[in-house]
Structure formats: C-alpha cells, structure tokens
Design goal:
The complex is a heterodimer.
Chain A: E1 7-18, E2 21-32, E3 36-40, H1 47-54, E4 62-67, E5 70-71, H2 77-85, E6 87-90, H3 102-113, H4 118-131, H5 147-158, E7 165-169, H6 177-194, E8 197-202, H7 205-211, E9 214-219, E10 222-227, H8 229-234, H9 238-245, H10 261-264
Parallel strand pairs in A: 3-8, 3-9, 6-7, 7-8
Antiparallel strand pairs in A: 1-2, 1-4, 4-5, 9-10
Helix pairs in contact in A: 3-4, 3-5, 4-5
Chain B: H1 2-31, H2 42-52, H3 57-79, H4 88-126, H5 129-135, H6 140-177, H7 183-193, H8 196-222, H9 228-259
Classes of the chains: A alpha/beta, B mainly alpha.
C-alpha cells in the first residue's frame, strides 16, 4: 500500500505564457502511482499545455515539475532523455511515423533505446500488438489503417518500453463510441493490471467518468478543482456543472451572457 | 516599410543562425554521437542514398547528355570560323567538369531531393511526428537529418561524376557524327587537355553544394509552421534558397580556384 501512495508526478506553482498571454497560471497538483488522473477542460483551457509541460516538450516560466522525484525543469538534456524513456505518450492524432510500418513504429523505441536482439524485439512487438488487439496488422502502414487502429498502434508504441507513466492526449476524440470504449478499457486495464500511472487529457465526459480515479478541471489556465469523479459530479462549482452538462449558459463564457448567439453573429 | 525591412533582416539573421546551428548539430551527431552510443541507423542512410542517388541517376544522365550535345554544337559554331573544330572535345570536357556538371546536377538534385526533404520533414512537423520522436527521447536531427545529410554528401559527387561522363558522351556523339571528327582523335583531344584538377575542383564543388542542399532542405522542413500551406511554403523556400546559395557558392569557389590558380 505504501508503494501505491507514492507521488510520481508533482507540479508546484507552474506557470507558462505564450507571446505574453498566460496559458497556465500557478497550477499545483500531485499524481499518485497507479492512478488514472484525468485533466478536463474546454478547448484552449490549457490542458494540452499542461500535458506538454509534464512530458518535457516545453519548459515552464515559473514553478517546478517533479517526475519520480526529479525536477525536469532543472535537469540536463541527457537527464531529461532518461526521464522521457521512462514514460510513454499517446498523441491526439497518434503521430505514427508515416514512412514506417505498424511493427516498425512499435519497434522504434526498442531499437533506439535498448540493445535487444531483433528476434526478442519481434516477440515484444507481437505481445504489445496483441494487447491492443492488432495482431496481423504488423506489415500495414499507418495510411492503410483506420483512425481507431492508429490510436491503438500509438498506444502499443507508448507502452513498448514498459513505462510506468503514460500520457494520453485526447485518446478518444474523433473515434466512434465503441472504439472510444475500447481505448478507455485499455487505459483502465493498463492502470489496474500493470500499475501504470495514466495522465489523460480529454473533454469526453463519458470517458472521464469511465476511467478516472481523480479528475482535475482546468479553466483559463487555472485549476478549478481536483477530486474523485463522484465528488466532481456532485460538486456545486458552477464551472464544473456547466462543463459536465455541456450547458451553453453559465460562467464559462463562450458567448457573453447579455448577447445571444443571433446577435453575436450579427443577424 | 522600415519595419518590414527590419523584420526581413531579423528573419534572415535568424535563418542563418538556425542553419549553422543545424549544421553543428548534424556534425555533433556524426562525429561525437557514436562515442556516446548514439548511432544513426545504417538502414535509413542506405534508404536515403537510394532515394538521393540511384533514383536521380536517370534525370542527371539526360540533363547532362543534352547539355554536352548543346555545348558541342554551340562551341563548334564558334570554333568552325577559326578552323579549330577539333578543340570542341576539350572545350566540352573542361567546361563540363569544372563548371556545368556540378552546378546543373546540384540544381536538379535541389529541385528533386531538397524539396522532398523539406516536404517530408515539414509534413512530419505539422502532424506531431517530430514532437513524438522528441517525446520518445529520439533526437529528430540524429534520426532524420543526419541520414539525409550523409546520403546527399556522398551521392551528389557520384552523380556529378556521372554527369561528367554523360556530358562528354553527348559531346562525343555530336563531334563524331555531325562534326565528323575521328572518334579516337576526339577522345585523345578530350583527355589531352583535361587535367585531374579540373575534375577535382568540380567534385569539391559538389561536396559543398551537397551540404547546402541538405542543410536548407532539412532546416526548412524542421522549422515548418502551420498546416498544408506551411509545408508548401517550406518546400518552395527550400528550392529557391538552395538555388540562390548554389549559384553564390559556385561564384565564390570559382573565384577562389581562379585566383589561387587551381
């Protein structure tokens, strides 16, 4: 139990601006080992930026980000590479390399970061592709398979090196509900069976309550609330209620309250 | 107006700094990376060599043979007046090896290969593939730019040598058929005046042009912004910039060879 409570990712007073505009404002939270931590929020709320800060793609202007006890904002590029090898990432549009086949894509991290023999790599590829239900598609190219399959190949690639943290950027967006459900189940299985810590960025509410152990709501770069899905559902916070129910009226000002859609369009 | 001029200067300086940065980065991964256990994959270098070299052979052959034919006819037109048609052979060979083969081959390859580098890497950039490599702790310069750089660096001089030969063949066809020069005499005259340094300076130019094409193609690709439009712009910019820099470098190198009597 002690091990399960260990903090693996910790953000402390993190802020980030782009071109003078503050995208992330003083955000702090902890993610525990084995937890599925979902970050939800509207488009442009800064949730993807949070993910890119955590995976080391960008550096914060202020604050610290600890991954397994190492502050990745203060680390050398070699040190950051070591941290990067210990986690996997599933991209919104899969980001598979077009010029490589499915098996070459999954093999890429293994070939680059391990000295495993090719036949061992072949076995690992088969195992990972079985895990995402894609045996038999080894020789296909990303352009020859569907969006949902690409996502699953992306997931197989993300877990190729047996990482203990996996980041998911909108894992179910653009997928039909069934494939979305399959992806959700995969995320859940990875967390429960392999004790992988999952950090998921999404605005798919069904997915949020299917998979989350903890939910963080982000709005305009600030953390609104972090809690269990049940408590989030019952939260009296108007931002959260508006977001969960997808209501056009509320404090999240897509349209200014005193101007209706018709007026805003100038009709 | 001044503001736009200032922006142009800043962008140009940024571009020059960026290209040199990429060059040093590539050299780091070629010479120092292997000592840290980080190699570029041989398979992808060979794959690029086939794309750069083998697949460009036919177009380089045709461009050069016709250049040789044209050069022979144009010089014959002048030399006939002095009764020195025989010297068409050496004129064709020397002007091809010293100047036309390296430049024309570089221009063809910049249009065919440099633009493909920019388009491919640009598409990878806008579809998050480069970011994905970075997240997997795979350096995009080592993984993508180094194989392309090495392939071009070794294949462009080979293509230039092919251009030299096919250009001379073009001249030979005109010389021995239309100008009725004895075939043996044509070849003798060709090699009598053609020196090794003529070929070497041409090949040296090819190495420099290869560096220019690879750097510009990869730099524009890796720095693509926006979607499909950005890829289009990067591709066009890579070809235009490479063309200008190839001609500029040719001018500088020719001046160096001329004044140092090489």
């Amino acid at each position: 139990m002690q091990n399960e409570k260990e903090v693996v990712i910790s953000l402390k007073n993190v802020s980030k601006s782009f071109q003078g505009k503050k995208i992330i404002n003083n955000v702090s939270f902890d993610i525990l080992r084995g937890e599925t931590f979902v970050i939800m929020g509207c488009s442009g709320s800064g949730k993807s930026t949070l993910l890119r800060l955590m995976n080391g793609a960008i550096k914060p202007d202020e604050g610290s980000i600890f991954i397994k006890g190492k502050d990745i904002t203060q680390i050398s590029s070699e040190g950051l590479d070591e941290v990067k090898i210990s986690f996997g990432m599933l991209f919104q549009y899969s980001a598979l390399l077009d010029s490589l086949s499915v098996e070459e894509n999954v093999a890429l991290p293994l070939r680059e970061h391990t000295k495993l023999a090719e036949d061992i790599i072949g076995i690992i590829i088969k195992m990972k592709l079985s895990l995402v239900g894609l045996r038999g598609f080894e020789k296909h190219y990303p352009a020859q398979i569907s969006g949902g399959m690409r996502k699953r190949v992306g997931l197989a690639r993300a877990i190729a090196l047996d990482p203990d943290i996996v980041f998911y950027d909108e894992p179910t967006s653009g997928l039909d509900p069934v494939v979305g459900g399959v992806i959700d189940k995969l995320i859940k299985d990875l967390s429960s069976k392999l004790l992988i810590t999952s950090v998921v960025v999404t605005h798919d509410m069904q997915s949020v309550f299917n998979i989350a152990d903890k939910v963080a709501m982000v709005h305009k770069g600030e953390l609104v609330e972090v809690d269990t899905p049940e408590r989030i559902k019952a939260s009296p916070n108007p931002y959260i209620q508006q977001f969960i129910h997808g209501s056009p009226v509320g404090p999240i000002d897509f349209f200014k309250e005193d101007i209706g859609i018709i007026e805003a369009l100038g009709l | 107006m001044i503001w736009r001029l200032g922006k142009l200067v800043i962008d140009t300086v940024k571009g020059i700094v960026g290209v040199f940065g990429l060059f040093f980065n590539i050299l780091y991964w070629i010479f120092i990376g292997p000592f840290k256990g980080k190699f570029s994959r041989r398979q992808s270098i060979f794959h690029q060599m086939v794309f750069v070299g083998l697949s460009s052979m036919l177009i380089v052959f045709f461009v050069s043979i016709f250049t040789g034919v044209v050069l022979a006819m144009q010089s014959a037109y002048q030399l006939e007046k002095m009764g020195a048609v025989l010297y068409v052979a050496s004129l064709v060979a020397i002007s091809l090896c010293r100047e036309l083969s390296p430049v024309l081959t570089a221009l063809v390859v910049a249009g065919r290969v440099g633009s493909a580098f920019a388009a491919e890497l640009g598409t990878m950039k806008v579809s998050e593939q480069i970011e994905a490599l970075d997240t997997m702790a795979i350096n995009p310069v080592r993984f993508l730019a180094v194989p392309r750089f090495l392939a071009l660096f070794f294949m462009l001089p080979c293509l230039t040598a092919l251009a030299d030969l096919s250009g001379i063949l073009g001249g030979y066809l005109v010389g021995t058929n239309s100008l009725e020069i004895n075939p043996d005499l044509y070849m003798q005259t060709t090699f009598k005046y053609l020196e090794l340094k003529d070929i070497n300076t041409g090949l040296l130019k090819a190495f420099v042009f290869a560096i220019i094409i690879a750097l510009i193609g990869c730099y524009e690709g890796l720095n693509t912004k926006g979607g499909a439009e950005g890829v289009g712009k990067a591709t066009t910019k890579s070809v235009v910039t490479s063309f200008i820099l190839i001609i500029l470098a040719d001018c500088v190198l020719t001046a160096i060879f001329y004044f140092s009597k090489v």
